[in-house]
Amino acid sequence: MAWKRRWNAAQRVPAVRTALFAIGLFLMTASPALGALPGPGGIFVFAAGLALVLKYSGWAKRVYVRFKRKHPKKGDWADWSLRRRSARRRLVRRKAQEAAGEAAE
Q1: CA torsion 72→75→76→77, rounded to 10°?
Q2: In contact, 28 and 53? CB cutoff 8 Å
Q3: What distances in angstroms separate CA 41 from CA 2, 44, 81, one per listed residue?
Q4: Of 8, 11, 22, 60, which sits most exposed with the smallest number of CB within 10 A?
Q5: What does the pLDDT look like over 21-38, one tens digit per residue?
Q6: Domain map of the chain by residue range?
Q7: What three-state secondary structure class fits 57?
């Protein structure tokens, strides 16, 4: 458990956050080259890079929120693919509302 505390402490250091953001950008830009190789490797590399960029950049989070508001279906797919907790909460809430609507009928 000590390694987890050390990792959490390291993530608060601005240089580490910047490095992780840069790695995310690198992964996103390298994904087309890996996409040319046989197999789905480029998709996974892009998703890993996107996850790093979204975690460590406030600007990227704002752009992502704007994208989700304009394109809700695509935003749902992106949330699902990134395994976001907020997406799971919304799904549970939506199912509960649908169940309540069916019970009222």
Answers
A1: 130
A2: yes
A3: 33, 5, 15
A4: 8
A5: 999 999 999 998 888 888
A6: 1-56, 71-105
A7: coil
CB within 8 Å of 95: residues ≥ 6 apart: none
Q: What is the pTM of this model?
A: 0.67
Query: Long-range CB contacts (< 8 A, 24+ apart) of 36-45?
Result: none
Q: Can you tell me which residue has the tokens 């046989």? A: 38
Q: 34 is written with which tokens?
A: 């890996």
Cβ atoms of 70 and 35 closer than 8 Å: no
Q: Which residue has the tokens 């987890």?
A: 4
pLDDT digits (tens, 9 = 90+) for 67-93: 888 988 877 777 776 666 777 787 788
Complete DSSP assignment for 82-93 = HT-HHHHHHHHH
Q: Are 51 and 24 in contact (CB under 8 A)?
A: yes
